[in-house]
Design brief:
Radius of gyration: 27 Å
Mean pLDDT: 81
Low-confidence stretches: none
Strand content: 5-15%
Helix content: 55-70%
CATH topology of the largest domain: Alpha-lytic protease prodomain-like
Shape: elongated
Structural class: mainly alpha
CATH architecture of the largest domain: Up-down Bundle
CATH superfamily of the largest domain: Cation efflux protein transmembrane domain
Order of helices and strands: HHHHHHHEEHEH
Largest sheet: 3 strands, mixed
Number of strands: 3
CATH class of the largest domain: Mainly Alpha
Number of domains: 2
């Protein structure tokens, strides 16, 4: 069963609204700075803020949608919308970078004209510091709630902050040297940094949508299974898992003694699910119980078994490589 954590939803919703409201304020400030100065570098910063508003609006919608419970049309819930949101945000970031590069090159060709850079620099510096704190906050909340959308939004805001800081240093350099060509050059450098961030977000989104294996999560699940291992657990194989928003779905095969009752097997499954939910509160676990065959005896640690056909003679290491592989007696 998929359980929607109401507290997580409230935390994510509050963070997304905060990001949107602050983003609107930052956009207005940067646009004012651009119209005052005519600076290409400031334009690049403002362009990224426009993307931030669009992306945050989409992130807010995806958080609302992903919080909806599973229904007959979405049996696994709506969590995957967060991956679409992160991917679209990455695409918009890349698009903003291309626009920035285009206008910066145009300025370099036709000449750079700026004025009142001191005022513009002060506005951008203030915006950069605000976004720095906001970005770290969003990433922190995103990791706490397992929200790729908030993590993506936080990284975007951090990129916006680093962009502003870079722009400020560039504008200070222009003010002290009177070399106006530095302004569009700084804008292009900023755009390249934005391109990298956009690519990373798109790559992460595609990986999640393709159910790319999270090696860290795989290792965590495997360690937990090893720690709770019983002597009558003969083998675990065909371990699989995938994530949908804050939910994680785990399934694998567990070989138990053939004489275990359905009740005993069900108790084992409940115990395993309780332990795995210590890793992820929204973990859904499904275990296919296999019964042991005669060829399993040589691998079995259950010394009290009265049905043993031969003594244990082969040991194997319990780790994630074994868990994702075939049954031990087929190898």
């Amino acid at each position: 069963m998929i359980i929607i954590d109401a507290n997580n939803f409230k935390i994510k919703k509050r963070a997304a609204w905060l990001s949107l409201i602050i983003g609107l304020g930052m956009l207005l400030g940067k646009l004012a700075a651009y119209f005052i100065t005519g600076s290409s570098a400031i334009f690049s910063d403002a362009a990224e803020s426009i993307v931030h508003i669009a992306a945050t609006s989409m992130a807010l919608y995806s958080i609302y949608l992903s919080s909806k419970p599973a229904d007959e049309n979405h049996l696994y819930g709506h969590g995957n919308i967060e991956y679409f949101s992160a991917g679209i945000e990455g695409f918009l970031i890349v698009l903003a970078a291309i626009v920035i590069i285009y206008f910066s090159i145009e300025d370099m060709i036709h000449g750079v004209k700026t004025e009142q850079l001191d005022i513009g620099t002060a506005i951008i510096a203030t915006a950069g510091m605000v976004n720095l704190f906001l970005g770290f906050y969003l990433v922190k909340i995103g990791k706490r709630t397992n929200s790729l959308t908030l993590i993506a939004d936080g990284k975007h805001v951090l990129t916006d902050s680093y962009t502003s800081i870079g722009v400020v240093f560039g504008l200070i350099l222009v003010l002290t040297t009177d070399l106006l060509i530095i302004d569009p050059i700084i804008a292009i450098i900023v755009a390249i940094n934005i391109l990298i961030t956009g690519y990373q977000l798109i790559r992460s989104s595609i990986g999640e949508l393709m159910n790319e294996t999270d090696k860290e999560m795989l290792n965590t699940i495997s360690i937990q299974l090893c720690e709770m291992r019983k002597d009558y657990w003969i083998d675990i194989h065909h371990l699989r898992f995938w994530k949908s928003g804050e939910n994680i779905f785990v399934d694998f095969h567990l070989i138990l003694p053939f004489y275990f009752s359905i009740k005993q097997s069900h108790i084992e499954e409940e115990h395993i699910e309780d332990k795995l939910q210590e890793i992820s509160p929204n973990a859904g676990v499904r275990i296919h119980m296999d019964y042991c065959k005669d060829e399993c005896c040589k691998f079995c640690d259950l010394q009290t078994c009265t049905h043993r056909k031969e003594p244990k003679s082969i040991s194997f290491e319990w780790n994630y490589k074994k868990f994702i592989a075939n049954p031990i007696y087929t190898e």
